[in-house]
Design a protein that fits this description.
Blueprint: E1 9-11, H1 26-37, H2 40-44, E2 54-59, E3 65-71, E4 79-80, E5 86-93, E6 95-101, E7 112-114, E8 120-126, E9 130-133, E10 139-142, E11 150-157, E12 163-169, E13 172-179
Parallel strand pairs: 1-2
Antiparallel strand pairs: 2-3, 3-11, 4-12, 5-9, 5-11, 6-8, 6-10, 7-13, 12-13
Length: 185
């Protein structure tokens, strides 16, 4: 996250669950982001910037990290992963497009991979629709609208240890950089 952030932290109540050492499941993260996306008062508290993404950090369920993110028209993340964290996100306003890879990538020791012809997936998310994903998920998310901002809610467990950024040229995926959390605040 490289745009200027909004810095408010908000706590969203989470239904109690038995204590364990594994944190919330992807399904529990998805439930959280959907419930939070439906909280109109909280979603409208995010200041939107017509030039860049904005966000509010939340306390997610079971020690997870969560964010509300505002997406001006035409903005996106670029290809990335979540450093081994599982996660979920849901659209709260507007529509987002997710392009993802149906391929498990090696975690270490590579700079360039050629993807299979059938690796690409695409989905559009609006009106509280969301999706959960596992720890090796590579995707990009963007607001394809030319005029309408979008807002989404995201949650990750464990809290993001890093994000790997990729570039893509046809079937070739190239590891470009590794971001650490200290650069996001």
């Amino acid at each position: 996250m490289t745009d200027a952030p909004a810095t408010t932290a908000v706590r969203i109540p989470t239904p109690p669950r038995p204590a364990d050492n594994f944190g919330p499941t992807a399904a529990e993260l998805l439930d959280f982001v959907r419930r939070t996306a439906a909280d109109t008062q909280l979603i409208t508290s995010l200041p939107l910037d017509p030039e860049g993404r904005t966000w509010i950090r939340l306390d997610g369920p079971g020690g997870s990290e969560a964010w509300i993110i505002g997406w001006p028209p035409g903005t996106g993340t670029g290809w990335h992963d979540h450093g081994g964290s599982r996660g979920a996100f849901a659209a709260a306003a507007g529509e987002l497009t997710e392009q993802s890879l149906a391929a498990q990538l090696p975690t270490e020791g590579w700079k360039t991979l050629e993807l299979a012809d059938d690796a690409d997936r695409e989905r559009r998310l609006a009106d509280g629709r969301g999706r959960a994903f596992g720890p090796h998920h590579v995707h990009q998310v963007f607001n394809a609208s030319a005029a309408t901002p979008a807002v989404s809610v995201h949650a990750y467990y464990p809290p993001l240890p890093l994000m790997r950024r990729y570039s893509r040229s046809g079937p070739v995926l190239r590891l470009e950089e590794v971001e650490r959390p200290e650069g996001w605040e």
